[in-house]
Each structure stands twice: as structure tokens, then as C-alpha cells.
Amino acid sequence: MTHGRRVPDPFRWLEAPDSPATQAWLAEREPEFAEAVRRWPLRGWLRSEIRGLVAADLWSPPQWRGGTAFATLRTAGAEHPRLLALTGGGRRVLFDPAAFDPSGGTTLDAWEASPDGRHVAVQTSSGGVERGELRVLDTATGRTVEAPIGGVRYSHVAWLPGTGSPAFYYVRRDGADGRRGVWLHRISADADVLVHACAAPRTVPGVRVRRGRWLIVTESHGTGHRNDLWLADLDAGPAEAPPLLPVQVGADAENDADIGPDGLLYIRTTWGAPRRRVCAADPAAPGPEHWREVVPESADATLDGFAPAGAPGDTRVVTAHTRLGLSTLNVYGGSHSLPLPLPGEGMITGLHAHDDGSVSLSYADVATQLVVLTWRPGEHRPNRWPPAAPGAARTTAPVPRQVLTGVSDDGTPIPVTVFSRAGFDRPGPTILHGYGGFGRPRQFGFSATVLAWLNAGGRYAVAHVRGGGDAGRAWHRQGSGRGKVRAVRDLIASGDALVGAGVCARTQLCLSGGSAGGLLVLAAAAQRPDLCAAVIASAPLADMARFELLGLGAMWTREFGTAADPDDFAALMAYSPYHAALAAPTGDGPAVLLTGFHGDTRTDAAHPRKMCAALRAGGRAPDRALLRYEHGVGHGPRSVSRAIDLAADAHAFAAAWTGLAPRQAP
């Protein structure tokens, strides 16, 4: 009993991943999935098409340190990106995950070069667990200079300036004594020093050093889009005890900061601006009472990235705004703003200012592989980097799109963006993607999987539901916590809008979502079994009564609520897909493909295991309640071949159940 309510959980035993019973149950699912794959006509074509579309050189934005450019490059046909050092027109491999681990199970999760370019810190993890080691390499030799640091997970690394003993700050989220915080590491020192400990539980710290002098420390409180921010002048105190000044602490706001060429502190904030704005302040008096607005809040777009660039006497703020999945790039200076042209209609990521006054960013759209662009003050447009690299040119012609509007049950208009090469004159097989979580906006970058689906004659739609960040902080909050069910109803309204506009018939509609989006699509199909023909739920949340006890669920109570609170619990149970399947079994509902990853430390693979068991217990036939389960991978990056196989299987399933026929593939 929970809060006076009986909560059935007949498949709790599937939460034990390595028990003999769970392993035996998983073994029974393997031949069922293999048999289903053999009956999906487009599987082979999709795999070949996706592999061809990803066959391009993909660069990361560069870091310039001590006359050397550092960047990762995944060459066409390679399984993993490699970290390179580029000098004088040549390039050297510093770290190759495939050489480090020939099995292909190790990924390069993060890296940061030292200010003088003599060292680079790289973080790796294996088996998909996203918790691994931080090791320091000598740039000249590529060799590890000391024993690796363990217990890190996507750690920020902030090198100290100067030419003395190399040192850096880093984040250890599950350190030796369980404290999360910022640590100082000196190469070859006996022990690291804790310089800032997080006072509250379920808090994630972050750290940066900017302009060779300023230490920026943040604490994010769970996933509630609220954080605290401090600033320290490293010239004013020892590195072991930096004199941290509060910029904003305890406020219900999300802040990000950088130091401009003019020496001012620039803060991107939701304080007084749900869609974010940029303010400037003197680092000696960084509190909000001293902030001066330099980039105002947009009325219809969300400020996703900013970078103060240029020269001390001519500092500009470069911004990336997003509206309904599409980015714009602008330069603000004084009271004026100047738009910078992009290669097409797509998304910007990784906007970053460099010490030489330039800015780098990544750009991609539905038909364009990710490319790196750089901009310098005085230039009228960003330029490709590296200049001589063939890179990833436009792979196909732009894909036509249109925006429809669904109306949710409370009257809220929900935008739905639809892409189609086949035109919109008659209904056709359609995938409707939804996420609706953590305030993250849906952006239209490159996906070889989506492009292959479009090239085969299918349509691809994205529902900009509440809970995401598509219309700012208020949009997120309306679809989070006890209002999460609104995101579910928004997705249902989006599916109805597609059918009503003639984009597809219900028998041609497949819902698709991963992680929090997997929860969304499963909940929508549970509430409206007639909504669609099929559902793809990749690494989903499903058991919302116990999500806090599985994976990183305890960090997500700001997003979903907590089962410890009676009102939160009632809201969770109103849409929990696992319990809906147990309470109202429908053997004739849509076909469901669940994917699970044994190494997943975010959304524990117990969720898809239990969901599959509940659907099967409710009478769903084996080919209508499939589990695709992988060992040796997790929620994050994986080798290219494994990613292609996963994408081909999922979309071949969608094609089989929506009627996307082989003859429609070019």
C-alpha cells in the first residue's frame, strides 16, 4: 500500500538485472525479436541507407592552446571519434578509443586541453555506464603521465593558468567520501583537494576557468532548471582556497556565466526572463543588483547559447536563439543586433568564445551533416572549419516542412512540425516524435535515421509539447511535476492534428520517443490505444511508482515529483505506463517496440523489462510487445555500427506497422 492505495507490482523481480530469473526471461525475448526482424521488409535497405548517410568526416569545434588546435574527428567509416592535435597543417592522434580498447566498448566522453597545450585531460567510460576515468596525456607523446582518476561522470575540467606545476579543477560527483563537489588536482600530487563541496543532496556542480584568471562554479539542483553561481579571481587567493563570491545563490533562476574580452562578467539568466536574457556586471560586484541587460529576452524564441567575443574595446555578444526547433545566430553590440547567415534552416550547438576574439559553433539541419563554423568580428558570415576539410557537405536537397497546430484538452495550442519529401497531398506513413521533459527544446539537427525514413517516402513530425523548452521556462513548468500529464495530452492532441490534417491515417502513425520521451509515448498510447498503429519507446521510464529507486531517478524529482508526497504520487500514477498496462490490459493496442540497454545508469533497463512483461501479461501478442535488449552499452554514446543497427531495427519496425512499403524506397 502507498498512501492508502494498493499498487500492484508483479514484475518487480525483473529489477534484478543479473538474477537467473531475469536472465532466463531476457533469453526468451531474444528469439522473439530476431523472428520479428526477419519479417520487416525495409530493415536491410534502411541499414544500408543510414550507413551511407553517416559516411562523412565529423569534426568537433576546436580548442586553441599554445599554438596547437585540439579537436575530435570521426572519419567516414570509423566507429569512434579520435582526439587530434593540429599544428602547421599536420595532425597527430592523441587518443583513439578503438586503439585503447579494440573491443569497441570504450567511448571518449569529454576532453580539455591545458592553456599551454602541453597536456590534455580525457575522460573515458566502458560498457555504456557513463561513469569512468579521467586521465592526463602528454601532448608531445600521447602517453598518460600518471594514474587515472576514477569515479567521474562527464566531469568538467578547468585547467589553471600559469607555467608551474600543471593543475586543474574537476567535478567528482561520487567521490571517495560520497561528497559531490569541485576538486583541485595537481599532476603527480599525493591527494586532491576539495575546494567547493555541494551543501545540498542531489546537486550537480560545474566548474570553468575563463580568460586565464576567473573561476566560475555552479551548482545545479537536480533537473529543476535552478542553479547557484559563484565567481573567484584566482589572482586574489590560493588555488586550494579560491575566494568565491556569490553571483546569485538561492534564487529560483537558471544562470550561466562567462568573462568577456572587456573583463566584464556576462550572465545568461532566466531571472526576470523565462526565455532568458544576457546581463553584464563588474566581477568585483557580481550580484544581480548590479546587473545591466545587454541582450533582452526575445518574445518568441529561447536563448540557448551566448558567447562574449571580440576585443577589449569592442566586445560583442554572439547569441543562438531557437524557435520551434530552428536556430538563429545574432551579434549584439551596443544598442544594435546583426543577424549572421547560416547554411540553412537548422540548429546551433556548442557556441563558444575563444581568447583571440573568435567564436566557434556547430551547425546541422535535417539534410546537412554537422559542420563546424567560426566567426570573427568584422566578418559578415561564419566560415567552415577546418577550411580545407571536405567535411560533411549537404547530403541531399532541403526537406520541405510545414507547421500544424493541435489543440490540447485545456485549449492550449500545440505546434507540430512535419517534414516530408513525398509532399502533403495525401496521407502517408508518419513517425511522430515527442520528448516533453527537462525543459529541453526539440531542435532540428541532422539524423541519418530520420533522413533515411524521409528518403523512403515516410513523413517525420515533432510535437513541441509542454514539459520541453520549446517556448521557454513557463512552457516547461506547465508540463512538469504534477502537470506532467499535460505533456501526454499534448502529444495525443498532436497525433489527432496529424490525422485531422490528412498527413496520415491512424493506421499509418507511429509514436517515437526515448528516455523521458519514451515515457511520454507509452503514456499517450495507454490513454488512447486507438491513437496510432505503433510505438517506439527507447530506454523509457515506465514504472513511475519506483522511478526514484532506479538509475538516476532520485535526481529527477523536480521534473516528475516524488512518490513520498501523496499529491505527487497521485499525479505519477495518473500516467504511469506500467501501471496502466497492469490495470487495463488491452491485447489489441498498438504494437510496441521497447529498447533496453543493460549498462544504462540513467533510465535503468528495469523500466523496459517490466513494461514488456506487463504488456505481454495483458494479452499483447509477442510481435506486438517486443523488447530489443543490448549488453555492453548504455544510455549515452556507442560505436557507429551499434547505433546504425539500433536505428535500422527501430525504423524498420515503424515501416512494417505503418505500411511504408519497400517499393516506396528509392
TrEMBL record:
Give the Peptidase S9A N-terminal domain ranges: 1-310
Domain of life, source organism: Bacteria
Domain named Peptidase S9 prolyl oligopeptidase catalytic: which ranges? Answer: 446-659
Q: Which Pfam families match?
A: Peptidase_S9, Peptidase_S9_N
EC number of this enzyme: 3.4.21.26
Q: Does the keyword Lyase apply?
A: no
What positions belong to coiled-coil segments?
none
Q: Name one GO biological process term.
A: proteolysis
Q: Which GO terms describe its molecular function?
A: oligopeptidase activity; serine-type endopeptidase activity
SUPFAM superfamilies under this entry? alpha/beta-Hydrolases, Peptidase/esterase 'gauge' domain
Could you state one GO cellular component term attached to this entry? cytosol
InterPro entries named in the record: AB_hydrolase_fold, Pept_S9A_N, Peptidase_S9_cat, Peptidase_S9A, Prolyl_oligopep/macrocyclase
**Could you tell me the keywords of this UniProt record?**
Hydrolase, Protease, Serine protease
Q: Which residues cross the membrane?
A: none
Catalysed reaction per UniProt? Hydrolysis of Pro-|-Xaa >> Ala-|-Xaa in oligopeptides
Please name the top-level EC class of this enzyme.
hydrolase
Q: Which PANTHER family match?
A: PROLYL ENDOPEPTIDASE
Q: What is this protein called?
A: prolyl oligopeptidase
What is the species of this protein? Murinocardiopsis flavida
